Amino acid sequence: MAMQTQDNDSEMSEINVTPLVDVMLVLLVVFIVTAPLLTQVVRVKLPKTEQTEPSPDQHVAILSVNADGQPVLDDHPVSLESLETELKALQEKDPEVSVQLQADKGAVFDAVAKVMAAAQRSGIGKLSFVTLQR
What we know:
This protein is of the alpha/beta class. It contains three helices and five strands. The protein has a domain at 60-129: 2-Layer Sandwich (Nucleotidyltransferase, domain 5), CATH 3.30.420.270. It has helices spanning 18-39, 80-93, 109-122; strands at residues 60-65, 71-73, 76-77, 98-103, 126-129. The protein has a five-stranded mixed sheet, with helices on one face. Helix 2 (80-93) runs parallel beside helix 3. It is rod-shaped and about 105 Å long.
């Protein structure tokens, strides 16, 4: 095998593809990394609804949590320990009772979560959250 030598006067007729391969591999890695990030975005346009009032024929109990974290059931302060039994008694009186939960803006989430857990343990099936309309 004889090696060919080039004269300085002759033109180079070969293309060096190593830099091209390097650039293509970098682009491939970039696309592999960013492709999963593009598929996790979910854009949802929520429908707008009219404000509705609950039907007057069903019993609605209002469960509030004030800024101190104290639960109030139908304008009567209730301790957190006795809240579950109060809600069970309310449900035994009317099995179709609906509870509306109102939490003060300054209430700690821990207190609201404890009230929600007590409502769940008591077996309340209909729990709704009341907020102000902006």
